[in-house]
Specification:
33% of the residues lie in helices and 12% in strands. It is an alpha+beta fold. Strands 1-2-3 form a three-stranded antiparallel sheet.
C-alpha cells in the first residue's frame, strides 16, 4: 500500500495533547502587540483547541498523527 501524504502545515501548527485534543496557536498574537490591551495580550497566551468539527479534518490532513 502506498504512503499517504502528510500536510506539512498541519504538522507544524498543531500538537496532540495527552487527552486527545488538538492544540493550536491563537490567531493574531504575533503582530502589533503594543497596540493591543493587556487583556487581549493575556488572552493570546492561553491554549486554544480545535472544536469537534475540525478534529476529523485535522486527522485527515495528518494521517500518521501529530507530535
Amino acid at each position: 500500500m502506498p504512503k499517504l501524504k502528510t500536510k506539512s502545515y498541519m504538522k507544524k501548527r498543531a500538537r496532540l495533547t495527552a487527552t486527545g485534543k488538538i492544540n493550536v496557536r491563537r490567531n493574531a498574537h504575533k503582530k502589533l502587540l503594543r497596540k493591543k490591551s493587556a487583556r487581549a495580550n493575556n488572552a493570546g497566551t492561553k491554549p486554544q483547541y480545535l472544536n469537534d468539527n475540525m478534529v476529523a479534518q485535522a486527522k485527515i490532513l495528518a494521517p500518521y498523527g501529530l507530535k
